[in-house]
Amino acid sequence: MKKRDFKVVLIGDSGVGKSTFVSSLINENLNKQTNIEQYQPVQLPPEMFNNPECNTTLIDTRCKANQIPEQVKIADIILLMYSIDNNDSCERLQKFWLKELKEKELKQPIIIVGNKLDLMDLKEDRDYCRIFKVIKELVKDFSQVEIGIECSSIKFQGVLDVINSAQRSYLYPLAPLYNIVNKAITEGFKKALTRIFRICDRDGDGVWSDQELEQFQKKVFKRHLDQNDIAGIKDMIEEELKDGSNKKKFISLQGFMALQKRGIELMKIQICWTILRFFHYQDDLTLDESLFQDEIIFDEEAGQTVELSEIALQQLQSIFEQQGQILTQSQFDNIFYPVMYQTSFPLLQQYHPQQQNITLTLWLSLWNAFSFFNYKDAYKLINYIGIDIKMSEAFIEKNKKDSWSSVQKITERQVFHFAIITKNKKKILEDQFNNLSPRITTINSKTYVISIYDELQAKQQIEKRRLSVVDFLIIERSCDFQTAQLIPITFFDENIQFWALIQKLVHILHSQPYGYSELQIKQLKQNDSFPIILFSSGIAILVSLITGGYYYYFRYKTFKKSK
């Protein structure tokens, strides 16, 4: 693990021993007594602790009575100290400190530190029952409280354990994964585990076989599982579930979640975070954005588009079929359960014709439409729902539209965009669309997206962008909109039913001359000649260089006489 810098801020009432705690750490490191300048940040030597990857800065604080120190704002972990021998100090934890921290909406993990252990009778509460009783009451109202620990700054008893606990809380935070009060894993952790489970469910049957469990173990922990290990894991899951739902022949998603819950309760939270970070999760349980920084190189200015590859479509189909042959709304939502952000994925109501159930055709059509407008957003969503695929494998570049030869390949595409440009009928058309634009339909297994623009929008979003935005323009006759782009154009005909018009345009788009005017075709054919000229010129230059080279070789090379 790479080095991580973090700040531990020590707070508490005056007299609880904060400065003594800091001094004891420094003196232990220097192996001698020394005067420490109070309230200055102290860089703790990494080799003193169990997590040398942590560059730990400890900050002592002082403040006026009933005031929260300003330094808590920069803290990664807060150590809230009280005196074990002082009941008033203990009561102040809840009545003032935690109450004020909660009101300030600070989100950092809090560790309760009971100091002055040397003043207590160690024969009583040897097993830290005392601190457990304190924590048990606090976690009910303050979710940021993670653990409690006792120490003696004077005797240097448990002091290193306090910092080790702070480092563990920073490296492996509990709050995002587990609710101490409810003794249950969080919704965010369930979402992440669902995605991970889907990725490792290689055959897509909704459960893990022994082989899939072993592959998961090798992949994440680089460790082999034998049959005894696998049996032990299954027994642990059965003990946690107590309902027989996790059959001995496989591990279910619920069983996988139960296993992680048991791990946390056995203080093995590091294992959970090892899994999460292997699958690129950050501390807030969102995926690392660096996963989505790649780009597909394609010529947008020439009308080239990007579509989902056959591999991506097959995997989307597999996720669909795990739910059944037809999706209910509930099953549809279940597929998107692992997503940890607000997505702009098309609404089902945008599909035409309206259907009560979600068919495979509709499912793939929505994905095709989504990818057409923003493949990066589509790729991010594909990752979140549990498809582990490289961007270069998920998408393919389609034909350009800047020459007649490339236009003739348009029938190879799967997604097309029709734009309606209107001046007076936008409200009427939007009503037909139920105010949901764009609308999406499937005709002969291909996806068509229909959008409505007024004249100003058309000039801003179509004319000033790129050729690939639109495949066919449908213009209301009263519009003044004109375009110099080589896009097929027709006029809106009020005498033809709207969806009948779309069917007609689909036929035109797939039949020569694909809706282009004679003038547009002439210009497209002229564009074809430029690459030919450039290619011919390149050949001529290459031939010239080669022949010139041979002339030089034979003209000036001295031949050796044969013996």
UniProtKB/TrEMBL annotation:
- Asked if the record carries the keyword GTP-binding, the reply is yes
Q: Any keyword Phosphoprotein?
A: no
Which Pfam family name is an example for this entry? Ras
UniProt keyword terms in alphabetical order: Calcium, GTP-binding, Hydrolase, Membrane, Metal-binding, Mitochondrion, Mitochondrion outer membrane, Nucleotide-binding, Repeat, Transmembrane, Transmembrane helix
**GO BP:** small GTPase-mediated signal transduction
The record's annotation in SMART domains points to: RAB, RAS, RHO
Please give one Gene Ontology molecular function term for this protein.
Answer: GTP binding
Look up the domain of life of the source.
Answer: Eukaryota
User: Which subcellular locations apply to this protein?
Assistant: Mitochondrion outer membrane
Q: What is its main location?
A: mitochondrion
One GO cellular component this record assigns the protein to is: mitochondrial outer membrane
Domain named EF hand associated type-2: which ranges? 224-310
What family is this protein classified in?
Belongs to the mitochondrial Rho GTPase family.
Query: What protein does this entry describe?
Result: EF hand associated type-2 domain-containing protein
Q: Which organism is it from?
A: Paramecium sonneborni
Q: What is the lineage of its organism?
A: Eukaryota, Sar, Alveolata, Ciliophora, Intramacronucleata
